[in-house]
Amino acid sequence: MRISINETKLFKKLIEQIYNVKINILPRGITIDSRLHESGDVYLPIVGENFDGHEFISSVVENNPSLIFSEKELKLNTLTIKTDNNRQTIHKIVKAWRKKIKPKIIGITGSNGKTTTKELAYHVLSKSIDCFKTDKNFNTVLSSPLSFLSAKQSQKVALIEMGTNQPGEINSICEIYNPDIGLITNISNAHIGNFRSNQEIAIEKGRLFNSLPKDGFAIINNDDNYIPTIKTNAKKITYGFNGSTDFKGNIIDSVNITVNKQKIKLPVSGFAMAQNALAIFTLSSILGIKNNEIAEFISSFNLPKGRGQILKIQNIEIIDDSYNANPVSMIDGLRRLTKIKAKRKIAILGDMFELGKTELESHEKIGKFLSSSNLELILTIGSRMKYAHKIVKDIKTAYWFKSKEEIIDFIKKIKKKDDLIYIKGSRGMAMEKIIEGLK
Questions:
Q1: 170 near 207, Cβ under 8 Å?
Q2: Partner of 139 for a Cys bridge, out of 9, 73, 160, 161, CB 3.0 to 4.6 A?
Q3: What are 78-94's pLDDT values in tens digits?
Q4: How far apart are CA 223 and CA 75, in angstroms?
Q5: Separation between Cα atoms, residue 401 and residue 413, nearest integer Å
Q6: Could you write out the DSSP letters of every residue in 323-379?
Q7: How many other C-beta atoms can be found within 10 angstroms of the C-beta atom of residue 172?
Q8: Structure pTM?
Q9: Cα–Cα dist 111/401, whole Å
Q10: pLDDT for 368-426, tens place per residue?
């Protein structure tokens, strides 16, 4: 991972003040991967389970770094600062950077839709406010803080995506940022992995609301079973499609909703996008954006790559939802597919990872949904998707494949003009390669 530093002089001055050193080369970036290191970068080698970045310091030195932080004693001509733990060093620097540039921090977490919600928020807010957002899906306790070091002093709002794979990580991220506003999209067993239950996931995600100050805002999805119960000292602002809320959504049809009577045309159909739009309408209103402007900006949003955009390849259409998958997002995506008019609808689905003890049940649930759907052809790949295939194969036209190459060859042989193909699977399945093979 490499991050470009935009405020180079300010960053240089900050490091010199913290560590009482004189940096002779203006830092242009900060990297934890020696392969991505560029001349003038600060290098922070990380000790991981399978690697130690210190082993590659010699190659970095040849590339003229401005500074090296090392957990090991080094004798180099390059400026080096000895540390006890480089992960903690990153956190220390980011905390100082946050205080130096002073943006309003908006933390975004949840089981589904974090990245799309962050990107939609940026699309809407950046039209009126100078904004920063964490890059790509940099949302871990390491990648999110590093990404923030590219923020500029002029940016008044920072949108921080916060992910977690195990208890304690959201709390660690919040301790670095001290967020002012928190938005939790939803709670589900999307990637239950190291968590034992949805309640435990809610506790972990809820650390975002727990961390907010009294003058902050907790943006609460009132339709969720868990989020309204999370404790916070901040002011609660509710949104939802059900019950009484501060921001009340109503669904007109698959691509149109209203929020507090303001009509919004969604950029793509589906309930997941309707929820995202309602959440961002709420956030944007808090920050002073006018209702009609919010509606206009939401409508003009383009989905990030691999997160549901429709591609035209030769004479067929593909819904590229290949970036990642979990039980909730896969059902949402398939439901969207069932509601779109097309001559023939085909689903290509790969394994869902990080489901722990719910792995079998979750894939069988997909099979049951497919069995009662209006999809004409269902193609699956991966050992876990065999569970879904076993359920659906006697009810629908369905095939299980050993490789993506087999799927590509099969589609090329049977495709018809105006086919609509939906593709989804967990990140590790690299389902986007099927799309590349069909081009």
A1: yes
A2: 161
A3: 999 999 999 999 999 99
A4: 59
A5: 15
A6: S---HHHHHHHHHHHHTS--SEEEEEEE---S-GGGHHHHHHHHHHHHHTS--SEEE
A7: 18
A8: 0.88
A9: 29
A10: 999 999 999 999 999 999 999 999 999 999 999 999 999 999 999 999 999 999 999 99
